[in-house]
Specification:
The structure holds two protein chains of two kinds. Chain A is α/β, with parallel strands linked by helices. Chain A contains eleven helices and seven strands. A five-stranded parallel sheet of chain A has the order 1-2-3-7-6, sandwiched between helices. In chain A, strands 4-5 form a two-stranded antiparallel sheet. The longest helix of chain B is centred in the first third of the chain and has 15 residues, at 6-20. The chains are: A alpha/beta, B alpha/beta. The structure holds thiamine diphosphate and magnesium ion.
């Protein structure tokens, strides 16, 4: 199918672009705070930053209802914030503190917020694909008017659940938008070097999905295209596939200097940072520098506060280690010396 | 009460629970034609192809989609066809179904039943005969059931479907035709957890489950002829397992034998033996014995396959040894 993203950025309404910019800036500020906390040793585990990829999260989720649902990956902070999860609860989760989205039991890779339709990040590459498909299958069975968006990376397309899940979505004609974030890397490996054939879209089309491509660093383009796709999916058009070309500006994790990539090329990517591009567009649309600066400092202030709060918060009570495992046959908590 | 088969009992359980709760549905390969063992026979006529869903041969996604569908409020009954094929869906069972509730801080439950037809049956060889229940007992978050009687297959499956936890539900393929009295009552439930005293006896406690209960009953007949009175505990649920009934029985007989069709090394019998040894060493008058299969893949050729089976004669020999003490 010929699928051109014919959505020139300049068509977007200024207020809408301001909102998208604000979402992206909040994601960026959250992750900069998380990166610092990780490097300072305050946040454990692996922290995967989506710095440089914010336009995909913001542009896609701006077109979803609260009742729509998403699944995401190890690199999912942006999707959570864009879907409406409270960054305060997310930061508490990263710090392993009481009041975190999962009570401190999940951490960065397992954030979930069912209240806003965020059905969970996942520590297993491609595992969110069958789960998203099943959430859509469940909604269809129950006659609910819901769209499920499944975010995953370009590395995930080489795992079996990708093929199985897309085929399943086609067979059962499920309301799913698959969003492949093509950031060029799977961990330290160039995705192209390990991907055969025509890649993600060719695979999706061969399984019967309409497949689209978009400049994933152009938030207005993502918003415009997804704004067309979601109503069609909601209207019974079946599953659709979107590849968003973007770039992971940081390493695989917060502690990865990413020396395995061409440093000049990597440095040049900061010039097409989605935030830089959106800010440029907003200036062209007449937004004052002071208004942009106000958005930036509000986001920085918000995330500095949530990090401070998270650092000061209490760790979870010990008995939570044994809570919410199962109803039948759960271990019994005994507070011993 | 009606006399029906183990297979019909499972089918009735699914049908009754689907009538009772519209969020229950079943999915797997070839369910539309009744499932490969007839354990869904006729259900598509009553419930239609949406709720008795024929799926692609995509075990990982049968399982993973069921996790997603359970997280949003439906109650999938997952058919794996052969327990051996569930190994294509281990991530989805172990990393997703078993952990979602905990990892997400209790925000959601994963109410799903994972039916895994198990065990040696009609010379099915190494990839269609395994008993892997011990693997699942090791995983926090999972419940594991393995019924022997038709009545238990109905009552436990109904409880499993109503349970909010993911339940690994192990049916023995050699049991499908086994007949027994089964209550007709729609609300007949066998709770997950408590064991069943299959035979009362005074001399040796034999703990087992699934098809081995029948083998143990035959062994008990032989033992009776030798003047040995065996007590048989049918665990029915492996996690959680009924320590109280096992302990009470061992307290009485002072001898314990654990029997399972699965490979003995790392089998669930080891857990029971170790637990009893830790708590009741002072009571025991003979060493605890385990009877499981040798650590060999299951052969196709009948005499080779038979070498791996636990037989009434092997159980009898073990009981005789234990009675020497
Ligand atoms: C099944 C599985 N294999 C390997 C890993 C280790 N791992 C974590 S992220 C990652 C790279 C994933 O690349 P991609 O899907 O492109 O996502 P990105 O990190 O680029 O966002 C790998 C190999 C994993 N988490 N799960
Ligand atoms: Mg990638």
């Amino acid at each position: 199918m010929p699928n051109d993203a014919a959505h020139p950025s300049h068509n977007i309404d200024r207020d809408r672009l301001v909102d998208l910019y604000r979402t992206m800036r909040r994601i960026r500020a959250f992750e900069e705070a998380a990166e610092k906390a990780s490097l300072d040793g305050l946040v454990g585990g692996a922290v995967h930053l989506s710095i440089g990829q914010e336009a995909v999260a913001a542009g896609v989720c701006a077109n979803l209802r609260r009742t729509d649902q998403i699944t995401t990956t190890h690199r999912g902070h942006g999707h959570c914030i864009a879907k409406g999860t409270d960054p305060g609860a997310m930061m508490l989760e990263l710090f392993g503190k009481e009041g975190g989205t999962c009570g401190g039991k999940g951490g960065s890779m397992h954030i979930a917020d069912f209240e806003v339709g965020m059905l969970g990040a996942n520590g297993v590459v491609a595992a969110g694909i069958p789960i998203a498909v099943g959430a859509a299958h469940g909604a269809k069975l129950m006659g609910e008017d819901k769209v499920v968006v499944c975010f995953f990376g370009d590395g995930a397309i080489n795992r079996g659940p990708f093929m199985e899940g897309l085929n399943w979505a086609t067979v059962f004609k499920l309301p799913v938008l698959f969003v492949c974030e093509q950031n060029g890397f799977a961990s330290t490996t160039h995705s192209d070097a390990v991907t055969g054939g025509g890649g993600a879209n060719a695979r999706a089309e061969s399984l019967g999905l309409e497949a689209y491509e978009v400049d994933g660093n152009d938030v207005a383009a993502v918003d415009g295209l997804v704004g067309d796709l979601i109503p069609r999916i909601r209207g019974g058009g079946g599953p659709m596939f979107l590849s968003a070309r973007t770039y992971r500006l940081k390493g695989h994790t917060s502690v990865d200097p990413a020396l395995y990539r061409d440093q000049d090329h990597a440095a040049a990517q900061w010039d097409v940072d989605p935030l830089v591009r959106a800010a440029g567009e907003l200036r062209r649309l007449g937004l004052a520098d002071s208004d942009l600066a106000a958005i930036d400092s509000a986001a920085a202030g918000e995330m500095a506060r949530v990090a401070e709060t998270a650092e000061a918060a209490e760790t979870p009570a010990l008995q939570h280690a044994f809570a919410d495992i199962q109803d039948i046959g759960a271990p019994v908590w005994e507070s011993s010396s | 009460m009606s006399v029906i088969s183990y297979q019909e009992a499972g089918c009735q359980a699914v049908a009754e629970e689907m009538r009772r709760d519209p969020s229950v549905w079943a999915l797997g390969e070839d369910l539309g034609r009744g499932g490969v063992f007839g354990q869904y026979r006729g259900l598509i006529d009553e419930f239609g192809p949406e709720r008795i869903a024929d799926t692609p041969i995509s075990e990982a996604t049968i399982m993973g989609a069921s996790v997603g569908a359970a997280l949003v409020g439906t109650r999938p009954v997952v058919e794996m066809r052969f327990a051996d094929f569930a190994l294509c869906a281990v991530d989805e069972m172990v990393n997703q179904a078993a952990k979602a509730r905990f990892m997400f801080g209790g925000q959601a439950r994963v109410p799903m039943v994972i039916r895994q037809p198990s065990g040696m049956w009609r010379s099915s060889a190494a990839q269609h005969s395994q008993s892997l229940e011990a693997w699942y007992t090791h995983i926090p978050g999972l419940v594991v059931a393995a019924p022997y009687t038709p009545a238990d297959n109905k009552g436990l499956l109904k409880s499993a479907i109503r349970c909010d936890d993911p339940v690994i539900y192990i049916e023995h393929k050699d049991n499908w035709a086994l007949e027994g009295e089964v209550p007709d009552d729609d609300d007949f439930l066998v709770p997950l957890g408590p064991a069943r005293l299959a035979r009362e006896g005074a001399d040796v406690t034999l703990v087992t489950w699934s098809k081995m209960v029948g083998v143990a009953e035959q062994a008990a007949e032989l033992a009776a002829e030798k003047g040995i009175d065996m007590e048989i505990v049918d665990l029915r649920t492996l996690w959680p397992w009924d320590q109280d009934m096992v302990f009470a029985s061992v307290e009485k007989t002072k001898r314990l034998m654990v029997v399972h069709e699965a490979v003995q090394v790392g089998g669930f019998g080891a857990e029971i033996a170790a637990t009893v040894a830790e708590h009741m060493a002072h009571v025991l008058v003979a060493p605890i014995r385990r009877l499981g299969a040798p650590r060999a893949p299951i052969s196709y050729a009948k005499p080779l396959e038979d070498l791996l089976r636990i037989t009434p004669a092997k159980i009898l020999a073990t009981a005789l040894e234990q009675m020497q003490r």
